[in-house]
Write a structure and sequence with these properties.
Length: 155
């Protein structure tokens, strides 16, 4: 029995690098898929982006789920599927409220509300996004969106 335990221990120790390598490879593969999804998104191929991201989300591991959900939300918004996009936003906000993408989720929700003519809701979303960030570039973009929304709402 003792020999069996020793043998099992040796096998597990020997297999550990292989298991770690698989995890590294999977993360690398997911990262490459996300890069590919971003390329398709930037080229306006939102349906292709969604296909890649849905496959990515089916893989195990939580390392890239927030970014994948955020990109999926943006792709759905690009396809003018507002309700689907809102559902993904809720998913991000509920599952990972501390994500670095939360500010972008609120910003995108604000854009959706502007598209629907719901300017006060859009302002609330933009202000929530603004409160979560101190990066000057992001603040400039959000401030511009706030100003544009106020201008449209006043006229």
């Amino acid at each position: 029995m003792n020999k069996l335990k020793n043998w099992l221990g040796i096998v597990l120790i020997a297999a550990a690098p292989l298991l770690a390598h698989q995890s590294w490879f999977k993360n690398r593969s997911v990262k490459e898929q996300l890069k590919k999804a971003v390329v398709h998104y930037n080229e306006g191929r939102f349906a292709t982006t969604k296909i890649i991201l849905n496959k990515t989300l089916k893989q195990q591991g939580d390392n890239y789920k927030s970014v994948a959900w955020y990109l999926l939300m943006k792709a759905s918004y690009g396809l003018n599927k507002m309700e689907e996009s809102r559902e993904m936003a809720r998913n991000i906000l509920q599952s990972d409220p501390q994500s670095t993408y939360v500010k972008h989720v609120f910003s995108c929700l604000g854009d959706m509300f502007v598209d629907e003519g719901k300017y006060s809701a859009a302002l609330r979303m933009y202000l929530r996004a603004r409160a979560l960030q101190s990066d000057e570039l992001f603040l400039e973009k959000i401030d511009q969106r706030i100003m544009n929304t106020l201008k449209v709402n006043i006229s």
